[in-house]
Amino acid sequence: MLIDIFHDTVCPWCRIGKKHLFDALAQWEEEAVNIRWHPFLLDNTIPSEGYEFRSFMQKRKGISSAQLQQIFDYTRQAGEVAGVQLNFDKIRLAVNTQLAHKLIALAPVKIRNDIVEAIYQAYFENGLNIGDIEVLVAIGKNHQMDENNLRLKLTANHAVDAVMAESTFARLNGIHSVPFFIFNNQVRIDGSQSVNVFLEALNRAKFIEVLTKQW
């Protein structure tokens, strides 16, 4: 089973969707799963130093401080139900996520899911600046990636170019919001959805695969 996941590392609903999908996979147990992570940059205009988080979010959404807090509270509660922490009080910066996505791409396949989760945890639980190279290098190092080699690759210009190209490609192919999931190139799921919805998608993709082979 091939699952393509389009996400951004500062998207709380992407973290919730990831948790729901992985909970569904823990129940499914039909066959081996190959997950491919794809960048979808929600806002690439953010500079490398980032913006103050709450003022940026208020301006972007055109809402008051109280309204923004209501959104944060609602999203945090949804995270708690799913089993993930979304600590918006700790987040100080709205960040550019290009380098975070590059770290995911550089990670060996066997630890890539863990790297994604570590990046989400760094941002949503610890409020770290995941647009900072040293923060990302530390995450990679904690997962046995070579520190010097990783820093060198993250600072290369082509690293960002590749992320930008893939994010643009996603939009040109009809993906306009995240999280977005494609199962076996056939079944598409838009949004975080529930565990049951993901189970249904897995089973539907498997059924299509079997039917296709029979024909």
Automatic annotation (TrEMBL):
It holds the Pfam family DSBA. Residues 3-202 form the DSBA-like thioredoxin domain. Gene3D superfamilies: Glutaredoxin (3.40.30.10). Signal peptide: none annotated. InterPro entries: DSBA-like_thioredoxin_dom, Thioredoxin-like_sf. This is DsbA family oxidoreductase.
